[in-house]
What does this fold into?
Amino acid sequence: MENTKLWQKGIVYQIYPRSFMDYNNDGIGDLQGIISKLDYIKDLGVDIIWLSPVYKSPNDDNGYDISDYLDINPEYGTMKDMDELIEKAKQKGLRILMDLVINHTSDEHPWFTQSQDPKSEYRDYYIWRKEPNNWTGFFSGSTWDKIGDSYYLHLFSKKQPDLNWKNPKIMEEVQNIMHFWLKKGIYGFRCDVINIIYKTSLENGKKSLVLTGSEHYHSQEGCHQILKTLRSEVMDQYDAFTVGETVLVTTKQANDLILPERKELNMVFAFEHMETDQINNKWFKTRFKPNKFMKVISKWQEEAYWNANYLGNHDQPRSVSRFGDDKKYHLESAKMLATLNLTLKGTPYIFEGDEIGMTNGDFKSMDDYKDIESFRIYTLMKKMLFPHWLRYKLIQKTSRDNARTPMQWTKQGGFTKGNPWLKVNANTKTINVDNNLDDPNSIYNYYKHLIKIRKESDVLINGSFKPLYMKRNIFVFRRTYQNQSFITVLNMSKNKRKCPLDMKGNISISNYNRTDLNDQLLQPYEAILIKEEGAK
Ligand code: ISL
Ligand code: CA
It folds into this structure.
């Protein structure tokens, strides 16, 4: 236990800075806003705050297009504000995890503007070719755009040119950036799309409905080499950690990145559980099937060396709207999902607003959306002759803006006194922080209680994971450490179901305020955490 690091035993709270709290009332969340809410975050019981990018950026992709890695986006504040945030957080026992986006920069980064001159020393910072290949990108369409008489590669939007990791100068630049921030006392990095940064070849790819060409850059040996160097040259000199965002990985590919002897990353965000309600790609949603979902989670629990557990983030629809029921069983299903996320093995990540059960946005038309991805996909579906109602329905279900609506602090919203950059959900009237703090039975107070239980428990932090039942939308698993164990019982559906296993032990927490385990009938979305008695 003593050797357990903070990033293993701690809990991470993800902030999407643009939407968290607007201090100067210009409609955009900012660093002073975050500072003003540090007590709220601390009270929840979390240890680490992951900030989505706050660097200087023209905001084509809300900060995931960086134009200066060593400066702060003026919309969010200044470097002085950032220093203050790091310091004030530290005083409260909170550490800051920053987003590190090193697959691409903004096209407005001075490296890229200079790179446009074929004779510039920055030319090789990016990937230029005379002719494009057949690759297709994450936001759909070709990955190549033309400037002058050459094409440059961009796996995301055309304002996000990919860096050329075959150029040793990039390694040097990125190391300097990492040192700069780690020296300020941050606790590490969430490494954006890290498993696709190295392009082994630029050959044409095998034709595929999505991401044609990915076999040339996904999980390449060159990427492993880069991560080993960043670990030994930078990370190892600090008490810090990395979590990689890794698209399309298998448990084997994840372990190749995170096993301690590999000396690369500490953990990764995988997506397989997020793919269980989609056909082929994330824009074609099918009905959520809990049985499939729990089997994927269980597989990752058993096979991956360590998990970064999450049910939502700034790229995904809201978890309660997606995996729960945001109407009839809002309270119950949000608490059930919390119980899942916080009793699995690994490091739990909570996305801002999930602790009060925030739901998908209540957008009324395409004019309400702001996300570049949503517009790109909408246009693509138009080209494919999808009727308007279907296009709109798919965007409504999948848009990343669902997770990005401003944090609901009060009945009136409370995020800003100005005009919010993205529409505040009208349900802030009932779903808001104020209501949650006041009500002992709220989702927030359930999170808080559960977090406390987890933090005080060797079993929940270090225990092994074993699935006991995964059928009929019921998920039961056991965590064991030395001679102690917990059982988590979850009904992931709105149907009442009899628990197939005998439930014995003491109830640590339950979302129906159960007092005993005699009744084996599980209520809709019921969740029970049971501390088992005696040795197992
Ligand atoms: O859902 C996905 C994979 O199943 C994708 O959304 C994937 O997570 C995403 O495309 C990669 O995300 C990251 O990099 C992007 C940025 O737009 C996202 O916000 C960021 O999280 C480009 O930097
Ligand atoms: Ca502001």
User: Anything to note?
Assistant: The chain has a mean pLDDT of 96.
